[in-house]
Design goal:
Organism (chain A): Gossypium hirsutum
Distance between the termini of chain A: 58 Å
Helix content of chain B: 55-70%
Strand order of the largest sheet of chain A: 2-1-5-4-3
Helix content of chain A: 40-55%
Shape of chain A: elongated
Order of helices and strands of chain A: EEHEEEHHHEEH
CATH class of the domain at 605-871 in chain B: Mainly Beta
Number of helices of chain A: 5
CATH class of chain A: Alpha Beta
Number of strands of chain B: 11
Protein name (chain A): AP complex subunit sigma
Radius of gyration of chain A: 19 Å
Family (chain A): Belongs to the adaptor complexes small subunit family.
Mean pLDDT of chain B: 75
CATH architecture of chain A: 2-Layer Sandwich
Structural class of chain A: alpha+beta
Number of helices of chain B: 39
Strand content of chain A: 15-25%
Domain AP complex mu/sigma subunit (chain A): 1-140
Pfam family, one (chain A): Clat_adaptor_s
Largest sheet of chain A: 5 strands, antiparallel
Shape of chain B: extended
Oligomer: heterodimer
Low-confidence stretches of chain A: none
Strand order of the largest sheet of chain B: 4-5-6-9-8
Largest sheet of chain B: 5 strands, antiparallel
Chain lengths: 161, 871
């Protein structure tokens, strides 16, 4: 099971965190600081796994961002690497060659995508197309709601003129 | 509208935060935003609720507290529209976790949304439930989730399946409700549903043996078929990853098959063909393929198999191990570790490669390789492997030395067939990485050295040589100093020369030099310096000619700022000056240390020193000396790690007593009597000032109030034998002055407790009888018996007691409030004292007795510190 997902920038800034196991706010800060220190300091050619407090942390760097996932000892590290890549590809498709700024300003969208990909710390969907379709459907629901709201307020505004 | 909630847009807030140059600036911006959001929340602003929560989430990601936004999530979730619910659920998952009480409030909204007509809203609710639900919510909402496992849309079914995993992890009893639904998910074609369904089955098997049996019987065939289909499926762009169709599904199927095949030959037999196919046909040039092979190898090694497949699996691991990709080598090491239990021989073949991995530049790989190598060491290969590891220790990274040293030491201890080999290897480790050696390791080394009487000379000479070259290794210095102190004469006279040794000439002066270096070196810590000081004392007897010089060094430490060293220096100086007669007896060589006791203590089978007794200095901090039975070694054993702290129980005592006056547990006896004396008692307690332990009668008199009859002192001094006297501090002095026996160890005589004359004056005697209820050692039942020693009747007799905070006192009503004269009857009263620090602190109590005699009010009080120690 994936215990948490972290996106950390090369400067050590946190870009996204998702916790599937309970960690208090204090613990979260501690975990991020600890792991940031370990992962950011690792050289480029080394393996993508770090042993940490009896868990394994799988990380991969994409441009300036480190994607980290914490898993149990007996989970498949290589598969988690694939899951990270899967996530990145979906983000890439959604934002159109994603960059760190996209994830900063649209962090909620990144979360929506992650929620279609992982649930309860397990993989939910292996098809990028399905995830994209589901996100698009929900985005359009939001759009319609907005339009409706604005049209209703227009009507009210006109009526009260 | 509130001027604060004018409300920057989310985008603007993020820009503002990003524009901050310093952390302080960022904090200021966040504080301002938080203030605005709070204001907006207080106004119950509907329009901006959505935006506020989005901002709070961003602030939360940055690590600032956002608890005040939790209720906003609930409000958004409760609103009707999809956009509000979407952000509300996201906020819920981000700002809350399962341990917050607020979460319970969302149960009802979740229930409604799980039954919503819009499937996307159902999806949101399932997602939130799956990510953060607590056990209670799992119980409440489990029926909804069960139902959704059969929902028409596959995207809801897959979410429900993963949500079920969370539910059965939180409440394993619910597992059986899910077995049938989970089994039907396995027949689906939709990959998302299949993946999650297989995962659900795997988790069900972990919590329920019933589920395991069911799936094993009914589903093994089907799963094998599904795996075969997916392995042989033609190219499908939607699921293809580097030429393989849906590796995630492959891996999950292999994982579930592993669970089903483990411990069941029949099920294992049914899956061997497909496993062989996966193991041989999967492409291993891409990560996805390797991930499948890795999972397949694990499945092969876990199921019941006669070995044909295992050869295949071990070969794959061999290939992995020689792969250039670090990731692949890492997982190979990981898997070989599990393979050692199955086929140690096959893994041994890769020993050389694994040893290379121990020296890899990647810390993760090194760590794995070292752990694996640790498992591979046996009697036959231990010597060359240890040699290699110690050689590597010289060049390894600083941060790896700790791990490496611990493993080497553990192996050397485990496989030490010959003492000389053990001592040699340990000396090498100490010289190379002495600063990383744990205390128990060098303690153990001293035990071994002490027991190898034929090697004393050899060891001390080897240590002396090592000491000259690597003085910066703390533990090496300690062991060397200890040995020079004990066996200094052997060092100088070359006693017990072994053939392998080079002869070495060390003068008495050289030996003293070495110890002087250790004591003067500014990097030496207290323990080392203390050990050096003892070594000097011992050498002064071994080398009479250097005695004056040693005295000089000891005298230099008389002004040491560390109390411990200062005190020892003064004591030792006195031994040298005034007690020449007993000196040689004092510093005799340590008796051979008992390895059995030591290893017993290391295993933790002995109770901690603190609980055995509070008086005697029997907490052997460095585990070298033996307790009370050998007072002299004890005396010299000052190399304790916790030296600066006053020893175990005495230390906190004064504070505790002073703490009494803050909140005394005042328990007036005699039902109906108001606690009128409480203020007085408070004053009295304050008047204690600093606490003086009851050592002799005279010091106790300070505590007794002035109205007290002096005769009490006599009885007190007779009590001081079993009083909680401060032997902690005293025994050293006592022993040096040549009087007073070693501290007595209190006899642990189980349930029988000596009764105590808690108080006696010319007019009154109070006896305490103790008992304990089995099973609650913290609680002591005290029966107090009051006897009138005067010739007048006492009326309105009232007994009161106060205890420090760590105790709890319960007073039962007294049997009477009239005490007949001349011991002609007595009053009894029961007390119950609960010691929250049982074993660490002793009971202590302050009592006050008030009565009327001849129409005169009499008040007597005192402090009782002489409770039996075993209470």
């Amino acid at each position: 099971m994936i215990h948490f997902v972290l996106l950390i920038s090369r400067q050590g800034k946190v870009r996204l965190t998702k916790w599937y196991s309970p960690y208090s706010q204090k613990e979260r800060t501690k975990v991020i600081r600890e792991l940031g220190g370990v992962i950011l300091n690792r050289g480029p050619k080394l393996c993508n796994f770090v042993d940490w407090r009896g868990f394994k942390v799988v990380y991969k760097r994409y441009a300036s961002l480190y994607f980290c996932m914490c898993i149990d000892q007996d989970d498949n590290e290589l598969e988690v690497l694939e899951i990270i890549h899967h996530f990145v590809e979906i983000l890439d498709r959604y934002f159109g060659s994603v960059c760190e700024l996209d994830l900063i300003f649209n962090f909620h969208k990144a979360y929506y995508i992650l929620d279609e990909l992982l649930l309860a710390g397990e993989l939910q969907e292996s098809s990028k197309k399905t995830v994209a379709r589901l996100i698009a459907a929900q985005d359009s629901l939001v759009e319609t709601a907005k339009e409706q709201a604005s049209s209703i307020s227009n009507i009210i505004a006109q009526a009260t003129k | 509208m509130n001027p604060f909630s004018s409300g920057t847009r989310l985008r603007d807030m993020i820009r503002a935060i990003r524009a901050c140059k310093t952390a302080a600036e960022e904090r200021a911006v966040v504080r301002k935003e938080c203030a605005a959001i709070r204001a907006s929340i207080n106004e119950d602003d509907q329009d901006y609720r959505h935006r506020n929560l989005a901002k709070l989430m961003f602030i939360q990601i940055l690590g600032y507290p956002t608890h005040f936004g939790q209720m906003e999530c609930l409000k958004l979730i409760a609103s009707a529209g999809f956009p509000e619910k979407r952000i509300g659920y996201l906020g819920l998952m981000l700002l809350l976790d399962e341990r917050q009480e607020v979460l319970m409030l969302v149960t009802n909204s979740l229930k409604q949304d799980l039954n919503h007509s819009n499937q996307y809203i159902v999806g949101l609710a399932l997602c939130a439930l799956g990510n953060i639900c607590s056990a209670e919510m799992a119980r409440d909402l489990s029926p909804e989730v069960e139902r959704l496992l059969q929902f028409r849309d596959p995207n809801i079914r897959k979410k429900a399946a993963l949500c079920s995993i969370r539910i059965i992890k939180k409440v394993p009893d619910l597992a059986e409700n899910f077995i049938n639904c989970a089994a039907s998910l396995l027949k689906e074609k939709h990959h998302g549903v299949l993946i999650t369904g297989v995962q659900l089955c795997a988790d069900l098997c972990k919590v329920s043996s019933e589920a395991l049996e069911y799936f094993r019987k009914k589903c093994t065939e089907g799963l094998v078929r599904t795996l075969r289909d997916i392995v042989n499926s033609p190219y499908s762009p939607e699921y293809d990853i580097s030429g393989i169709t849906d590796p995630y599904l492959h891996i999950r199927l292999l994982k579930l098959l592993r669970i089903l095949g483990q411990g069941d030959a029949d099920a294992s037999d049914r899956m061997t063909d497909i496993l062989a196919q996966v193991a041989t046909k999967t492409e291993s040039n891409k990560n996805a393929g390797n991930a499948i092979l890795y999972e397949c190898v694990e499945t092969i090694m876990s199921i019941e198999d006669d070995g044909g497949l295992r050869v295949l699996a071990i070969n794959i691991l061999g290939k992995f191990l020689s792969n250039r990709d670090n990731n692949i080598r890492y997982v190979a090491l990981n898997m070989l570790m599990r393979a050692t239990t199955l086929d140690a021989q096959a893994v041994q073949r890769h020993r050389a490669t694994i040893l290379d991995c121990v020296k890899d530049s990647d810390a993760s790989i090194r760590k794995r390789a070292l752990e694996l190598l640790y498992l591979l060491v046996n009697e036959n290969n231990v010597k060359p492997l240890i040699k290699e590891l110690i050689e590597y220790l010289e060049v390894s990274d600083q941060e790896f030395k700790g791990d490496l040293t611990a493993k080497i030491c553990s192996l050397v201890e485990k496989f030490s067939s010959e003492k000389i080999w053990y001592i040699d290897q340990m000396l090498k480790v100490l010289s190379e990485a002495g600063n990383f050696v744990k205390d128990e390791v060098w303690h153990a080394l001293i035990f071994v050295i002490s027991n190898a009487s034929d090697l004393h000379g050899y060891t001390v000479r080897a240590l002396y040589r090592a000491f000259l070259t690597s003085t910066e290794q703390e533990t090496l210095v300690r062991v060397a100093v200890w040995c020079i102190g004990e066996y200094g004469d052997m060092l100088v006279n070359n006693v017990g020369m072994l053939d392998i040794e080079d002869p070495i000439t060390v003068t008495e002066c050289d030996a003293v030099d070495a110890v002087e270096v250790a004591i003067k070196r500014h990097t030496s810590d207290l323990t080392t310096k203390a050990m050096a000081l003892i070594a000097l004392l011992k050498l002064s007897s071994r080398f009479p000619s250097s005695s004056e010089r040693i005295k000089g060094i000891i005298v230099q430490n008389k002004g040491n700022l560390v109390l411990e060293l200062q005190q020892r220096s003064i004591e030792f100086n006195r031994i040298l000056q005034k007690h020449q007669k007993i000196r040689s007896a004092l510093v005799e060589r340590m008796p051979v240390l008992d390895e059995a006791t030591f290893s017993g203590r290391r295993a933790g089978s002995l109770p901690t020193a603190i609980s055995t007794s509070s008086g005697a200095p029997s907490n052997l901090p460095n585990g070298i000396a033996k307790p009370a039975t050998a007072p002299i070694p004890d005396l010299l054993d000052l190399s304790s790690d916790d030296v600066p702290a006053p020893s175990s129980s005495g230390g906190d005592f004064p504070q505790d007593l002073l703490g009494v006056d803050l909140s005394p547990t005042l328990a007036p006896s005699g039902a109906g009597k108001p606690p009128k004396a409480s203020t007085d008692v408070l004053l009295d307690l304050l008047s204690i000032g600093t606490y003086l332990p009851v050592q002799t009668g005279s010091s106790a008199s300070d505590i007794l109030s002035s109205s007290q009859d002096d005769k009490a002192l006599a009885s007190l001094s007779s009590l001081s034998a079993n009083a909680t006297s401060p032997v902690n501090a005293a025994p050293m002095m006592d022993l040096l002055d040549g009087h007073g026996p070693g501290p007595q160890k209190p006899k642990e005589n189980g349930q029988a407790y000596q009764s105590l004359v808690a108080y006696e004056s010319s007019s009154l005697r109070v006896m305490f009888n103790f008992s304990k209820q089995p099973g609650s050692p913290q609680t002591t039942l005290i029966q107090a018996t009051f006897t009138n020693l005067s010739s007048n009747v006492y009326n309105d007799f009232l007994f009161q007691a106060a205890v420090p905070k760590f105790l709890q006192l319960h007073l039962d009503p007294a049997s009477s409030n009239t005490l007949p004269a001349s011991g002609d009857g007595s009053i009894t009263q029961n007390l119950k004292v609960t010691n929250s620090q049982h074993g660490k602190k002793l009971l202590v109590m302050r009592v006050r007795i008030a009565y009327k005699t001849n129409n005169k009010d009499v008040l007597e009080e005192r402090q009782i510190n002489n409770f039996p120690q075993n209470l």
